[in-house]
Specification:
Number of strands: 5
Number of domains: 1
Oligomer: single chain
CATH topology: Rossmann fold
Structural class: alpha/beta
Strand order of the largest sheet: 2-1-3-4-5
Radius of gyration: 12 Å
Largest sheet: 5 strands, parallel
Distance between the termini: 11 Å
Shape: globular
CATH class: Alpha Beta
Length: 115
């Protein structure tokens, strides 16, 4: 599967990307919501792991924009700092799942398996 990881924390994004690659997935990483949307516009990803708390475009704004043009693209929110309200908004926007950070890398692999 082609997976895009959008996370402003390079170390976290790299660890998740490595775990997903070890499972046979193709993975690209973006460190901002703006850059992530550009990759999505290319039509590349089949699924997205999206950090909800980021500078610039936060995860919920990115998710809003994704849902306008790609309503069926699976998006899994990643969060370590999100409020309950932010997670509720993501669920209303049709997020496919939520994985908390820090989390066992196995949880990211399992989240992809569910979609």
């Amino acid at each position: 599967m082609r997976i895009l990881i959008v996370d402003d924390e390079p170390m976290v994004a790299t660890m998740i990307a490595d775990a997903l690659r070890d499972e046979g997935n193709e993975v690209r990483v973006s460190f901002s919501g703006e850059d992530g949307l550009l990759i999505i516009e290319e039509g590349w990803p089949e699924a997205v792991f999206l950090d909800i708390v980021m500078p610039g475009l936060d995860g919920n704004e990115v998710l809003r924009r994704i849902r306008v043009s790609w309503p069926r693209l699976p998006v899994i929110i990643m969060t370590g700092w999100a409020t309950d309200e932010q997670i509720t908004v993501a669920r209303r926007l049709g997020v496919s799942g939520v994985v908390t950070k820090p989390s066992a890398l196995k949880n990211f692999v399992n989240a992809i398996a569910q979609i």
